[in-house]
Design brief:
By secondary structure, the protein is an alpha+beta fold. 17% of the residues lie in helices and 32% in strands. The protein has one domain (4-67). It has one helix spanning 42-53; strands at residues 4-10, 13-20, 30-32, 57-61.
């Protein structure tokens, strides 16, 4: 498993995202995890990690980046 914070360019701004993907080659089923009211917190990171352990690539984008939050 390879969890990491990545940066995605959106609307000309960097948006942080929590990404987890199994250490394998080839195509993977994937999921986008939508954050809750408190952003990409430990619970959301746990969800991406659980999806990864189940064989999915998962990413949870920090949709609050427009307000200057890294969550």
């Amino acid at each position: 498993m390879a969890p990491a914070w990545i940066s995605i360019l959106g609307d000309g701004q960097d948006m942080r995202a929590d990404r987890s993907q199994p250490e394998t080659t080839g195509e993977l089923p994937s999921a986008i995890v939508v954050l809750e009211a408190f952003g990409v917190n430990k619970q959301i990171q746990k969800v991406t990690d659980e999806l990864c352990r189940a064989g999915y690539g998962a990413v949870a984008p920090g949709l609050y980046h427009h307000w200057g939050s890294n969550l």
